[in-house]
Design a protein that fits this description.
10-stranded mixed β-sheet; 18 strands; about 35% helix
Length: about 400
């Protein structure tokens, strides 16, 4: 599956600092991670930190799938609002999922400091706004629910938003959010893990996996074999190629990035923003004063049809941005398309689809892929060791 199109911003901004070989011999490892994006990198970090022996492979250059196309907004909010998620999954699962997302942002800050990554992590506020009067009851219900369950949020009026330069009716301001350069961070994580003993092979496509004598034998496209006790799939949306259960609806999503502004507007210095429209749009700034707009989602049909829509989506997002921020001159510099997915409850999938097999998945589907991957990182050891873990129950297969 082609996960993204055209040159995305992050790899151009931060060129690859390390190269890895493809696999050209048969090897054996206790743990094989399939997928060298941000999810695979975080899982590898957790396992390496615990003293595990790990091999990581990717069919492309590492970090060049969905990670290179991510806009990397880190929020505890997910694609399903808290009050709706309570109805879908119950209060315990919903509230803990939001709390887990908040904790994940701080956990990531600790990891970044530990590996000394200069990946431009910055804490921000999150502004969830509506532009239509019909969305106000929904937004008020969400605000009330978050307040009720202890989340630090403020209600922003139309007048307050106007002072920020945002043309909208009302908004929820959350205190905890962040941004990061996902490509840079994933590169740094993999480099750190390699220095700690992990073996990394890119341009190594796993074509088949067979179980034999309690172990797995993964065969590459070049005819080499990797024998492993555990396999962890961190291949994101490409996991639809190996999963029997349908867990995600694939979507095409679009992103535009502006030229660097001489002076970044104040609202973008302090906040990331997203709206209540369906599909929603989201907005952030980069460290070099560019503005990024993402969204315009469509059902995924195939890569060619997705990519043909880029010019149309550019204009749609430009118009949308200018309506919401009429005083900002957005000059288009980059645009790209990517593939992502939505689950029925907006939550990720972790653990073993088949309890009898040591084949694990960490799938952070949805708009919060990075924070979901951090939550998955904190449960992977229990999945490997067969221990009970509430997250493995909340986000299990077959739910």
């Amino acid at each position: 599956m082609k996960l993204r199109s055209t040159e995305t911003f992050w790899p151009l901004k931060y060129k690859m600092q390390a190269s890895y070989p493809s696999l050209d011999s048969d090897i054996e490892t206790p743990i094989l991670i399939i997928g060298g994006g941000i999810t695979g990198a975080l899982i590898a970090y957790k396992l390496i930190s615990d003293g595990k022996k790990v091999v990581l492979v990717d069919r492309r250059d590492v970090c060049n799938g969905s990670t290179a196309a991510s806009t990397a907004l880190l929020q505890y909010e997910i694609d399903v609002s808290l009050h709706e998620l309570i109805k879908l999954r119950g209060a315990d699962c919903a509230i803990n999922s939001y709390r887990n997302g908040k904790k994940a942002i701080f956990d990531l800050r600790i990891i970044i400091d530990t590996i000394k990554s200069d990946c431009e992590f910055e804490f921000k506020k999150s502004i969830y706004f509506c532009s239509l009067k019909k969305d106000i009851p929904f937004l008020k219900n969400e605000f009330k629910t978050r307040k009720q369950h202890g989340f630090d949020v403020n209600w922003l009026s139309k007048a307050e938003l106007e002072t920020m330069g945002l043309k909208a009716i009302a908004a929820i301001e959350s205190k905890t959010a962040a941004v990061v350069d996902p490509f840079h961070l994933a590169q740094d994580l993999i480099s750190y893990c390699q220095n700690e003993g992990m073996k990394v092979f890119d341009r190594t496509n796993i074509e088949s996996i067979k179980s034999q004598g309690g172990k797995f034998i993964a065969e590459t496209a070049n005819g080499n074999f990797i024998m492993a006790n555990h396999i962890i799939h961190c291949s994101g949306y490409e996991s639809t190629e190996t999963l029997k259960e349908k867990v995600v609806d694939l979507k095409s999503t679009y992103v535009i990035a502006s030229e660097s502004l001489p002076d970044l507007p104040a609202v973008f210095k302090n906040s990331i923003l997203w709206d209540t429209s369906n599909p929603y749009l989201y907005f952030r700034a980069t460290s070099d004063n560019r503005l990024i707009v993402g969204g315009g989602d469509e059902d995924f049909l195939d890569s060619k049809k997705r990519d043909k829509l880029i010019p149309k989506k550019e204009q749609y997002m430009l118009r949308s941005f200018r309506r919401k921020f009429p005083n900002i001159n957005f000059k288009l510099d980059y645009s790209w398309a990517g593939t992502f997915g939505e689950t029925k409850d907006g939550l990720p999938y972790f653990g073993k689809p088949d309890p009898k097999k040591n084949e694990h998945y960490v799938l952070g589907f949805g708009g919060n892929g990075i924070t979901f991957s951090i939550i998955g990182m904190n449960s992977i050891l229990d999945s490997i060791n067969g221990k009970n873990n509430m997250d493995l129950e909340y986000y299990r297969f077959g739910r």
